[in-house]
Amino acid sequence: MVLVFCSLASLITSSNGSGAKQLGFNPKNGQLKIMQVADMHYADGRNTPCKDVLPNPFAHCTDLNTTDFLYRLIEAEKPDLIVFTGDNIYGPDATDAVKSLNAAFAPAIKSKIPWVAVLGNHDQESTLSREDVMKHIVGMENTLSQLNPSGVDFIDGFGNYNLEVRGVEGSSYVNESILNLYFFDSGDYSTVSSIPGYGWIKPSQQYWFKQMSEKLRESSEALYSAPGLAYFHIPLPEYERINWSDVTGVRQEGISSASVHSGFYTMLAYRGDVKAVFTGHDHINDFCGKLDGIQLCYGGGFGYHGYGKAGWSRRARIVLVSLFDELNGTWGPVKSIKTWKRLDDDNLTAIDAQVLWRYSHPKHRKKPDYYYLYY
Question: Is the sign of the CA dihedral 238, 243, 246, 251 positive or negative?
């Protein structure tokens, strides 16, 4: 039996005109929960075998195990947003891209929880082009995904967009974006003959991000920049430079980034609003590590047709964003961003809980002195 439900935050928000719900914080607890699903690698359902699993309990493992994991995880965590970070389908083994995409995202659609997706390096390797894959995703039910930002004449890739999450109704931040979610197409493979390897986030995408980051900061009435989170598929080369003495999670394979430094990390550090980056691509890495104040994180491999490590559970990353309690019955801006992972075992075990970011300078805020009570 499949349980279908909506999270409270999804239910209370209004339509964006396309049938999907707008995103908002839960007014009862001042929280927003995001579930990252990395590398489903869905192909042809029950005809697609699993990779790198133990014979017991996975004697008859197929794509349907991936589907079952997603249903169970949605039921357990009840997220307010589901983010699929690429390689949603594994093109070489998907005989019909439309059917594979529909099956891969079916649990999210049936849950009626808002969801978004970006592309990986394998999504377009079936019967649809990269652009057509993203167009199909944008046309699916309950998604907040966008083909590309409106009003932009040119931008590389497909699936570059942002979501602004405003304050809770009744608070002084109701008309202000207090959390910004950025989504990027990190490409598939290099199109420059002299540069081998994977793709990267191009200057046109970086320029759009810079403009959007500046616009959101200028429109803010607060005395600080609203924090942001960035989601894309291929990790940045800078993942190699994190402080390895302060890492939560494991690194079990190399960082399969582009072979060039595109300058995007420098742009993120320069703007300063993005506090954490979440990628996939390297299935048996699931760590978070900090570099120059930015947390660089992996989701960990989710899908059973993607490569893995026998005996090492498939997993997903959860992010919980919490607001300040105004102490007068309303909610303020973002107080903290926390994360943990859930494993596909009998208990959906939660591991590696950590704080990614916490606002630590209340004197710089426009709110009253009672915020000092939190510190």
Answer: positive
Given a contact cutoff of 8 angstroms between Cβ atoms, the answer to whether 81 and 35 are in contact is yes
The CA-atom distances, in angstroms, between 305 and each of 32, 314, 334 are 30, 11, 37
Among 32, 28, 39, 86, CA closest to 63: 39
Which string of b and e fits 248-286 if b means at least 16 CB within 10 Å?
Answer: bbebeeebebbeeebebbebbeebebbbbbbbbbbbbbb
Specify the pLDDT at position 224: 67
Residue 256 token pair = 């399969």
Q: Which residue is it, tokens 């309303």?
A: 330
Which residue in 262, 279, 249 sits closest to 119, CA to CA? Answer: 279
Q: Cβ of 360: how many Cβ atoms within 10 Å?
A: 10
Rounded Cα–Cα distance for residues 232 and 186 (Å): 6
Bridge partners, residue 312, by sequence: 309
Mean pLDDT of the 222-241 span: 91
Query: Pairing state of beta strands 274-279 and 228-231?
Result: parallel
Please give the Cα distance from 347 to 344 (Å, whole number): 8
Tokens representing 348 are: 């959906």
Per-residue pLDDT band at 17 (split at 50, 70, 90): very low
| Planar angle of CA 90, 70, 351, nearest 5 degrees | 105
Q: What's the full length of the chain, in residues?
A: 375
Say how far apart CA 177 and CA 333 lie, in whole Å: 9
Helices 203-219 and 264-271 cross at an angle (nearest 10°) of 10
Give per-residue pLDDT as tens, 89-108. Answer: 999 999 999 999 999 999 99
Contact 212, 164 (CB under 8 A): no
- pLDDT, tens only, 262-290: 999 999 999 999 999 999 999 999 999 99
Collapsing DSSP to helix, strand or coil, 333 comes out as: strand
Structure tokens at 361: 């300078």
